[in-house]
Design a protein that fits this description.
The protein is an all-alpha fold. The protein has one helix at about 1-110. The radius of gyration is 35 Å and the shape is rod-shaped. It starts with a helix and ends with a helix.
């Protein structure tokens, strides 16, 4: 009789180990699937957005540098014709009109 009780305990222990292994395997599988889904659905789009923003920022910085050089060149040309205060007024006015144009376009796009 004592052998039967020991054999039952061994079977129960083996069953518990198999269930624990099954749960561990299922947990590992769910973890791998979740990681793959997050990598595909979250990380990749965020990386694309980051690259897009970095490219847009670089383009904006280059455009600003170009506008500064153009403004200085225009200022130097206009300074000979209109004096320095007149040249500053013209260059500043052009920038102001351009910014107002961008604001009007943005407001119209937001209203649609």
């Amino acid at each position: 009789m004592p052998d039967a009780g020991g054999a039952d305990k061994d079977r129960i222990s083996a069953l518990i180990e198999m269930v624990a292994d099954l749960l561990q395997t299922a947990t590992d599988w769910v973890r791998q699937e979740a990681e793959a889904v997050i990598r595909e659905k979250v990380v990749a789009p965020v990386q694309r957005v980051g690259l897009t923003l970095a490219s847009a920022l670089a383009a904006a910085l280059l455009a600003v540098a170009g506008l500064v050089f153009l403004a200085v060149a225009a200022f130097l040309v206009l300074a000979d014709w209109l004096t320095y205060p007149g040249a500053l007024a013209v260059v500043g006015g052009v920038y102001l009109v351009a910014s107002l144009g961008f604001i009007v376009v943005k407001v119209r796009l937001m209203q649609k």
